[in-house]
Design goal:
alpha/beta, 12 strands, 17% strand, globular, binds S-adenosylmethionine, binds iron/sulfur cluster
């Protein structure tokens, strides 16, 4: 592949990490993410797998070396493995890492094929180890199936990181159980501060309530009462900060987009399942790459559209719970943008 000049934004940040949502659909209905009767987009609005491959390939030509596939639930997209197979061709030829974030429900089937496509690491979202609470938070999920998926991923040789959304009054009591489980299973664990995205209901139908917001500052302080936490210098260019537990224990991450400013080192952009390129998770500005893909233009015009968008990447994000009442929250869904 011929490589073009790399993507550098107006603040001299090189854009090397692309997160792509391949579907807005999901087989779970996590209360903080989707309404139970979520209206999905018409199929024609979604990029086809061929369009996704062409777009991601353009990003690799422009210097993206890490690609994370997400959704919705990426593994419920029909024939998604053909897309993984296509992208795996770029591994070692511009692309260093091909990975995904999944709810784990389909991993028992797909772990082997994903590993065969060069996927070495997978992030699995899991908020509780209690089967009843798991069903309550995901509405439709089965903990056992996800745990089988995690086992299959490990058997296929993948390294697993668990992502847990910190929810006050929900998984507070399981903090130490989750840490012990990850330690025993040799998995890393990252806590995510809940973000004000999409539907935030009043709690009457089980949707996320604002009083479930559990600042990771508090969570971390609670961990520090029991464990020695050593700050790690690891930086991924994103909102995560890492510690090592008890010197040699698992690596714990904290993703705190609301309370920490991580924007100076931001190296990433996101593409939604409809081909909208978001330069910043916390801003509404997006570029319509589907129009560029469907307009019959060649790869040069597609690259120009990407470059033009990157030139608008803002300095920082704009999340603020205090501005909820005046429309400060993000109206789009995490399942469109990709978490
Ligand atoms: N379905 C896949 C999964 O659950 O891993 C991938 C997409 S999901 C949108 C990606 C991540 O976003 C998950 O870890 C999920 O817990 C997280 N997420 C969804 N809604 C969120 C919210 N309102 N605040 C914080 N994290 C959220
Ligand atoms: Fe689906 Fe992931 Fe959203 Fe849960 S967090 S509803 S698994 S997209």
């Amino acid at each position: 592949m011929d490589h073009a000049a790399p993507l550098i934004d107006p603040f001299a940040r090189a854009i090397t990490y692309l997160r792509v949502s391949v579907t807005d659909r999901c087989d779970f209905r996590c209360t903080y993410c989707m309404a139970e009767h979520m209206q999905f987009l018409p199929k024609r609005d979604l990029l086809t797998l061929e369009e996704l491959e062409r777009l991601c390939t353009a990003f690799v030509r422009l210097g993206v070396s890490k690609l994370r596939i997400t959704g919705g639930e990426p593994l419920v997209r029909r024939n998604v493995m053909s897309f993984f197979e296509g992208m795996s061709q770029h591994l070692g030829a511009g692309l260093d890492e091909l990975t995904l974030t999944t709810n784990g429900s389909q991993l028992d089937r797909f772990a082997g094929p994903l590993a065969a496509c060069g996927v070495r690491r997978v992030n699995v979202s899991l908020d509780t180890l209690d089967p009843n609470k798991f069903r309550a938070i995901t509405r439709w999920g089965t903990l056992d199936k996800v745990r089988r998926g995690i086992d299959a991923a490990r058997d296929a040789g993948m390294r697993i990181k668990i992502n847990t959304v910190a929810l006050k009054g929900f998984n507070e009591s399981e903090l130490f159980d989750l840490v012990s489980w990850c330690r025993a299973e040799d998995m890393d664990l990252t806590f995510i501060e809940v973000m004000p995205m999409g539907d935030m209901g009043d709690g009457t139908d089980g949707t996320l309530r604002l009083d479930q917001y559990w600042p990771l500052r508090d969570l971390r302080a609670r961990l520090a009462e029991r464990f020695a936490l050593t700050d790690l210098p690891d930086r991924t260019g994103g909102p995560a900060r890492y510690v090592r537990l008890d010197g040699t224990g698992p690596r714990l991450g904290f993703i705190t987009p609301l309370t920490h400013n991580f924007c100076e080192s931001c190296n990433r952009v996101r593409v939604t399942c409809t081909g909208q390129l978001f330069m910043c998770l916390g801003q509404e500005d997006a570029a319509d790459l589907r129009a560029a893909l469907r307009g019959g233009a060649g790869d040069g015009a597609l690259e120009d559209a990407i470059r033009y968008a990157i030139a608008r990447k803002p300095r920082g994000h704009d999340f603020d719970y205090s501005r909820q009442s005046v429309g400060g929250r993000m109206s789009r869904h995490m399942s469109h943008t990709g978490g």
